[in-house]
Amino acid sequence: MKWVRWVNIGVTTYLVITSFMIVFLLKNPNASRISDRDLNTYAQPTITASASATSTPTIMLTATIAPTNTPTPNTIPSNKLIFGMGSQAGPAMDYKLVQEAPVHMLTSWYNGTKDLEWMRVQQNDLIPRLYAKKYIVHLITWTDLPEEDIQTPHGPACGRPYPVSTQVVEDMKQLAEIYNGNGPMYVSLFTEFQTFTCTDNNWIGNENYWNTLKDNFRKIKDIFHQNAPQSRVAISWGGWINRYDDVKNQGGRSLFPYFADILKESDFTAFQTMKSDTNIQDMLNMTSILAAYGKPVMLSHYKPSGGSSEVFDNDMRKLFTDDVIQQLTRNGLFAFSFMDDEMINKSETSYNLVKTGIQKYGK
User: What's the pTM value of the predicted model, to 2 decimals?
Assistant: First the structure.
């Protein structure tokens, strides 16, 4: 019968096709799936970043989104900061705020050769206690000497002699030996250095002074690394410089590119904010500018000049918010030091603003 013949043909064809499929799969076990290597290739995120160091720096970050089954690196910065207190670590250690809030960095100021005498006394007493109590040690250097005509290795200049002298390099070796210890240490050198020249904030006309200062910075940084291996060194800017630009004299924001080499060689970057009107926008602008140089940023000392509690309290109300803290940490800010506790203790309101803020955002 014809239908029997067609059934036999169909069965035979099915058996032949099935046999070929079985043989093919046995010889090619991976033919029906993507290999692990291929899957990893497809799933890995691609992140590219570039930063330019200019007077108005830009930071670009683009990333492809990885599949949900592949973990991506956590690129979101912590919204916690190290908080510090000055102006000398010994008294600051006993401040009420330091006892009641997570203030883990204590700041001391060095203003000249004479300070070595009393700092040397602390070498076998206070400084070992700071490290033993697990405080982060922060040292700021500043010079307030008369400005005068001087001769530098780069030629004649006008400014404060000590920061560009050979004496400061010799003194910094002693300072590094004094502060050497078993714990982290940050050094904010030459704070407010833009005022050290007879004409403040400008590159033009001050080239010899600035180049000598940069030479000394490099020498001092190496000295600290050799004699206090735990130390990290930066140059500390006056934060007011973000407020204007002077292209003609290469001052204001135009000064930053001339120090790009120093900023890139530094272990971190630093600035102060001490304006009498408001300081939050200065903090945001300075961290944004310094972020372009790829190093962590410290606010080395904060205290509004003029002593206005209204300005201080307004700064604190704005600072201790999720939005501002996140912007600052996103720009690389890792530490914030109060110059002293004078403004904090002016009123119960001021004290509680700072205490509550540090308890929430301090680490």
Answer: 0.79
